[in-house]
Backbone:
Protein backbone atom coordinates (compact mmCIF):
# COMPACT_ATOMS: atom_id res chain seq x y z
CA UNK A 1 0.00 0.00 0.00
CA UNK A 2 1.07 3.60 -0.59
CA UNK A 3 2.63 5.58 2.24
CA UNK A 4 1.58 9.20 2.57
CA UNK A 5 3.07 11.94 4.76
CA UNK A 6 0.90 14.72 6.12
CA UNK A 7 0.63 17.16 8.97
CA UNK A 8 -0.96 16.03 12.18
CA UNK A 9 -4.51 17.33 12.61
CA UNK A 10 -4.58 19.00 16.05
CA UNK A 11 -8.37 18.73 16.32
CA UNK A 12 -8.42 15.00 15.61
CA UNK A 13 -7.78 12.98 18.77
CA UNK A 14 -6.93 9.86 16.74
CA UNK A 15 -4.05 11.73 15.10
CA UNK A 16 -2.62 12.83 18.44
CA UNK A 17 -2.94 9.36 19.93
CA UNK A 18 -1.55 7.73 16.78
CA UNK A 19 1.50 10.01 16.78
CA UNK A 20 2.14 9.37 20.48
CA UNK A 21 1.79 5.60 20.11
CA UNK A 22 4.06 5.39 17.05
CA UNK A 23 6.68 7.50 18.81
CA UNK A 24 6.54 5.35 21.93
CA UNK A 25 6.96 2.18 19.86
CA UNK A 26 10.00 3.60 18.09
CA UNK A 27 11.53 5.35 21.10
CA UNK A 28 10.00 4.30 24.43
CA UNK A 29 12.51 6.38 26.37
CA UNK A 30 10.87 9.71 25.50
CA UNK A 31 7.70 10.86 27.24
CA UNK A 32 4.96 11.94 24.86
CA UNK A 33 1.21 12.37 25.26
CA UNK A 34 -1.55 13.78 23.05
CA UNK A 35 -1.66 16.79 25.36
CA UNK A 36 2.07 17.44 25.05
CA UNK A 37 1.86 17.26 21.26
CA UNK A 38 -1.03 19.72 21.16
CA UNK A 39 0.89 22.05 23.46
CA UNK A 40 4.00 21.90 21.25
CA UNK A 41 1.91 22.97 18.28
CA UNK A 42 -0.27 25.58 19.96
CA UNK A 43 2.39 27.29 22.09
CA UNK A 44 5.32 27.32 19.68
CA UNK A 45 6.34 30.68 18.24
CA UNK A 46 5.26 31.22 14.63
CA UNK A 47 8.83 31.95 13.52
CA UNK A 48 9.90 28.52 14.82
CA UNK A 49 7.95 26.93 11.95
CA UNK A 50 7.17 23.85 14.03
CA UNK A 51 5.51 20.95 12.21
CA UNK A 52 4.46 17.53 13.41
CA UNK A 53 4.33 15.07 10.52
CA UNK A 54 2.95 11.54 10.34
CA UNK A 55 3.56 8.78 7.83
CA UNK A 56 0.39 6.85 7.22
CA UNK A 57 -0.03 3.47 5.52
CA UNK A 58 -3.40 1.84 5.09
CA UNK A 59 -4.91 4.30 7.54
CA UNK A 60 -2.34 3.47 10.25
CA UNK A 61 0.20 5.99 11.54
CA UNK A 62 3.52 4.14 11.30
CA UNK A 63 6.05 6.99 11.53
CA UNK A 64 6.48 10.49 12.89
CA UNK A 65 8.66 13.53 12.42
CA UNK A 66 9.08 16.64 14.53
CA UNK A 67 10.75 19.58 12.82
CA UNK A 68 11.31 23.32 13.13
CA UNK A 69 13.90 26.02 13.72
CA UNK A 70 16.01 26.18 16.89
CA UNK A 71 15.18 29.76 17.89
CA UNK A 72 17.25 29.58 21.09
CA UNK A 73 20.42 28.96 19.08
CA UNK A 74 22.73 32.00 18.86
CA UNK A 75 23.58 30.85 15.34
CA UNK A 76 20.72 31.51 12.91
CA UNK A 77 19.52 28.94 10.41
CA UNK A 78 19.75 25.91 12.67
CA UNK A 79 16.92 23.42 12.13
CA UNK A 80 16.00 20.09 13.69
CA UNK A 81 14.32 17.04 12.18
CA UNK A 82 13.76 13.96 14.31
CA UNK A 83 12.26 11.02 12.42
CA UNK A 84 11.07 7.75 13.96
CA UNK A 85 9.29 4.80 12.36
CA UNK A 86 7.66 2.03 14.38
CA UNK A 87 10.18 -0.86 14.41
CA UNK A 88 7.72 -3.38 12.96
CA UNK A 89 6.65 -1.00 10.17
CA UNK A 90 9.96 -0.25 8.49
CA UNK A 91 10.79 -1.07 4.87
CA UNK A 92 7.87 0.80 3.29
CA UNK A 93 9.67 4.10 2.56
CA UNK A 94 8.06 6.02 5.42
CA UNK A 95 11.37 7.23 6.86
CA UNK A 96 12.70 8.57 3.56
CA UNK A 97 9.45 10.36 2.78
CA UNK A 98 9.40 11.96 6.24
CA UNK A 99 13.01 13.12 5.78
CA UNK A 100 12.34 14.66 2.37
CA UNK A 101 9.19 16.42 3.56
CA UNK A 102 10.89 17.74 6.68
CA UNK A 103 13.97 18.97 4.82
CA UNK A 104 11.84 20.76 2.20
CA UNK A 105 9.95 22.49 5.00
CA UNK A 106 13.15 23.57 6.77
CA UNK A 107 14.72 24.86 3.57
CA UNK A 108 11.72 27.05 2.80
CA UNK A 109 11.67 28.23 6.43
CA UNK A 110 15.22 29.60 6.24
CA UNK A 111 17.25 26.75 7.73
CA UNK A 112 20.79 26.32 6.43
CA UNK A 113 21.63 23.25 8.50
CA UNK A 114 19.55 20.40 9.88
CA UNK A 115 20.30 18.35 13.01
CA UNK A 116 18.76 14.98 13.79
CA UNK A 117 19.00 12.37 16.53
CA UNK A 118 19.52 8.84 15.21
CA UNK A 119 19.43 5.59 17.19
CA UNK A 120 22.89 4.08 17.52
CA UNK A 121 22.09 0.93 15.56
CA UNK A 122 23.73 -0.08 12.27
CA UNK A 123 20.53 0.14 10.23
CA UNK A 124 19.62 3.57 11.61
CA UNK A 125 23.08 5.04 11.14
CA UNK A 126 23.24 3.62 7.60
CA UNK A 127 19.88 5.25 6.84
CA UNK A 128 21.18 8.64 8.00
CA UNK A 129 24.38 8.30 5.99
CA UNK A 130 22.42 7.42 2.82
CA UNK A 131 20.57 10.70 3.21
CA UNK A 132 23.78 12.71 3.49
CA UNK A 133 24.00 13.07 7.27
CA UNK A 134 27.27 13.00 9.21
CA UNK A 135 27.56 11.77 12.80
CA UNK A 136 28.74 14.04 15.61
CA UNK A 137 28.09 13.74 19.35
CA UNK A 138 26.47 10.89 21.27
CA UNK A 139 23.75 10.88 23.89
CA UNK A 140 22.54 8.14 26.20
CA UNK A 141 19.13 7.25 27.61
CA UNK A 142 19.31 5.84 31.13
CA UNK A 143 16.66 4.00 33.13
CA UNK A 144 16.06 3.48 36.84
CA UNK A 145 13.51 1.08 38.32
CA UNK A 146 11.68 3.17 40.93
CA UNK A 147 9.28 0.39 41.86
CA UNK A 148 11.91 -2.15 42.92
CA UNK A 149 15.22 -0.29 43.05
CA UNK A 150 16.82 1.31 46.08
CA UNK A 151 17.28 5.06 46.06
CA UNK A 152 20.18 6.68 47.92
CA UNK A 153 18.99 8.50 51.04
CA UNK A 154 18.60 12.26 50.91
CA UNK A 155 22.03 13.76 51.74
CA UNK A 156 22.37 16.20 54.64
CA UNK A 157 21.16 19.68 53.76
CA UNK A 158 24.00 22.17 54.38
CA UNK A 159 23.50 25.30 56.52
CA UNK A 160 21.88 28.11 54.57
CA UNK A 161 20.37 25.63 52.10
CA UNK A 162 16.69 24.72 51.88
CA UNK A 163 14.61 22.53 49.57
CA UNK A 164 11.35 23.46 47.88
CA UNK A 165 9.51 22.60 44.67
CA UNK A 166 8.61 24.28 41.42
CA UNK A 167 5.07 24.65 42.77
CA UNK A 168 6.43 27.26 45.20
CA UNK A 169 7.11 29.51 42.19
CA UNK A 170 3.62 29.25 40.70
CA UNK A 171 2.91 32.96 41.20
CA UNK A 172 6.29 34.17 39.95
CA UNK A 173 8.43 31.69 37.96
CA UNK A 174 10.97 34.35 36.95
CA UNK A 175 13.65 33.03 39.37
CA UNK A 176 13.26 29.60 37.77
CA UNK A 177 13.64 31.14 34.31
CA UNK A 178 16.92 32.78 35.33
CA UNK A 179 18.24 29.51 36.77
CA UNK A 180 17.17 27.46 33.75
CA UNK A 181 18.69 29.97 31.32
CA UNK A 182 22.10 29.91 33.02
CA UNK A 183 22.20 26.12 33.31
CA UNK A 184 21.01 25.56 29.73
CA UNK A 185 23.63 27.94 28.30
CA UNK A 186 26.38 25.62 29.57
CA UNK A 187 24.89 22.34 28.35
CA UNK A 188 27.02 20.50 25.78
CA UNK A 189 25.47 20.10 22.35
CA UNK A 190 25.77 20.74 18.63
CA UNK A 191 23.27 23.59 18.82
CA UNK A 192 24.01 26.17 21.50
CA UNK A 193 21.07 27.56 23.44
CA UNK A 194 20.45 31.03 24.83
CA UNK A 195 17.13 31.34 26.64
CA UNK A 196 16.30 35.05 26.65
CA UNK A 197 12.56 35.31 25.96
CA UNK A 198 10.79 35.06 29.33
CA UNK A 199 7.16 35.14 28.05
CA UNK A 200 7.98 32.44 25.48
CA UNK A 201 9.67 30.32 28.17
CA UNK A 202 6.59 30.58 30.39
CA UNK A 203 4.29 29.44 27.60
CA UNK A 204 6.50 26.76 26.06
CA UNK A 205 8.37 25.36 29.08
CA UNK A 206 6.83 26.38 32.40
CA UNK A 207 3.27 25.60 31.30
CA UNK A 208 4.16 22.43 29.41
CA UNK A 209 1.70 19.65 30.32
CA UNK A 210 4.48 17.14 30.98
CA UNK A 211 6.25 19.39 33.52
CA UNK A 212 5.31 18.35 37.05
CA UNK A 213 5.88 21.33 39.33
CA UNK A 214 5.25 19.32 42.50
CA UNK A 215 8.00 16.81 41.63
CA UNK A 216 10.45 19.47 40.40
CA UNK A 217 12.91 20.04 43.24
CA UNK A 218 14.63 23.38 43.80
CA UNK A 219 17.60 24.06 46.05
CA UNK A 220 17.69 27.50 47.64
CA UNK A 221 20.90 29.04 48.96
CA UNK A 222 20.19 31.95 51.29
CA UNK A 223 16.67 32.03 49.87
CA UNK A 224 17.64 32.21 46.18
CA UNK A 225 17.34 29.32 43.66
CA UNK A 226 20.78 27.80 43.12
CA UNK A 227 20.03 24.36 41.63
CA UNK A 228 17.06 22.40 40.36
CA UNK A 229 15.93 19.11 38.89
CA UNK A 230 12.91 19.48 36.61
CA UNK A 231 10.52 16.53 36.44
CA UNK A 232 8.29 15.41 33.58
CA UNK A 233 5.54 12.82 34.08
CA UNK A 234 3.12 11.27 31.60
CA UNK A 235 0.37 9.91 33.85
CA UNK A 236 1.45 6.34 33.03
CA UNK A 237 3.76 5.92 36.03
CA UNK A 238 6.79 7.24 34.17
CA UNK A 239 9.02 10.06 35.38
CA UNK A 240 11.68 11.78 33.31
CA UNK A 241 14.38 14.24 34.35
CA UNK A 242 13.78 17.16 32.01
CA UNK A 243 16.77 19.22 33.16
CA UNK A 244 19.12 19.28 36.14
CA UNK A 245 21.38 22.26 36.60
CA UNK A 246 23.19 24.58 38.98
CA UNK A 247 24.12 28.24 38.88
CA UNK A 248 27.80 28.72 38.05
CA UNK A 249 28.59 30.29 41.42
CA UNK A 250 27.33 27.20 43.27
CA UNK A 251 28.71 24.36 41.17
CA UNK A 252 30.90 21.69 42.75
CA UNK A 253 28.95 21.69 46.03
CA UNK A 254 26.69 18.70 45.38
CA UNK A 255 23.55 20.81 44.99
CA UNK A 256 22.46 19.16 41.72
CA UNK A 257 22.72 15.75 43.37
CA UNK A 258 20.68 17.04 46.31
CA UNK A 259 17.97 18.36 43.98
CA UNK A 260 17.78 15.18 41.95
CA UNK A 261 17.73 12.93 45.02
CA UNK A 262 14.84 14.92 46.45
CA UNK A 263 12.96 14.84 43.14
CA UNK A 264 13.37 11.07 42.76
CA UNK A 265 12.11 10.44 46.29
CA UNK A 266 9.12 12.68 45.60
CA UNK A 267 8.45 10.78 42.35
CA UNK A 268 8.46 7.37 44.01
CA UNK A 269 6.22 8.63 46.81
CA UNK A 270 3.80 9.92 44.14
CA UNK A 271 3.55 6.45 42.58
CA UNK A 272 6.00 6.68 39.69
CA UNK A 273 7.51 3.28 38.88
CA UNK A 274 10.09 4.12 36.21
CA UNK A 275 12.60 6.96 35.94
CA UNK A 276 14.23 7.93 32.64
CA UNK A 277 16.88 10.49 31.91
CA UNK A 278 19.15 11.51 29.06
CA UNK A 279 22.82 12.47 29.07
CA UNK A 280 25.28 13.79 26.56
CA UNK A 281 28.06 11.21 26.47
CA UNK A 282 30.57 13.99 27.14
CA UNK A 283 28.83 15.19 30.29
CA UNK A 284 30.92 13.11 32.68
CA UNK A 285 29.78 14.76 35.94
CA UNK A 286 26.08 14.20 35.24
CA UNK A 287 26.70 10.65 34.04
CA UNK A 288 28.54 9.94 37.27
CA UNK A 289 25.64 11.32 39.32
CA UNK A 290 23.11 9.21 37.44
CA UNK A 291 25.23 6.07 37.79
CA UNK A 292 25.43 6.76 41.52
CA UNK A 293 21.62 6.83 41.64
CA UNK A 294 21.49 3.44 39.94
CA UNK A 295 20.57 4.54 36.43
CA UNK A 296 21.80 2.26 33.66
CA UNK A 297 22.17 3.03 29.95
CA UNK A 298 19.25 1.53 28.02
CA UNK A 299 19.71 3.13 24.59
CA UNK A 300 22.05 5.47 22.72
CA UNK A 301 21.45 8.05 20.02
CA UNK A 302 23.95 9.82 17.79
CA UNK A 303 23.46 13.39 16.66
CA UNK A 304 23.71 13.74 12.90
CA UNK A 305 23.65 16.81 10.70
CA UNK A 306 24.00 18.11 7.19
CA UNK A 307 23.90 21.40 5.31
CA UNK A 308 20.76 22.46 3.46
CA UNK A 309 20.62 24.36 0.21
Residues:
Amino acid sequence: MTVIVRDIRPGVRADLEGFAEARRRALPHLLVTPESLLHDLDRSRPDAHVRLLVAERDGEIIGTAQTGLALDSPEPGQGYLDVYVAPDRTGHGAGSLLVRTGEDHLATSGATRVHSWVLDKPEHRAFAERHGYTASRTGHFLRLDLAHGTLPPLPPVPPGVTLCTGADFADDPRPMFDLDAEATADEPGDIGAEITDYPAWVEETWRHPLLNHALTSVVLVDGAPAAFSAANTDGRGRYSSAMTGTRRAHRGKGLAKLAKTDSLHRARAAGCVEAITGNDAGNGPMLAINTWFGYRICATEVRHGRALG
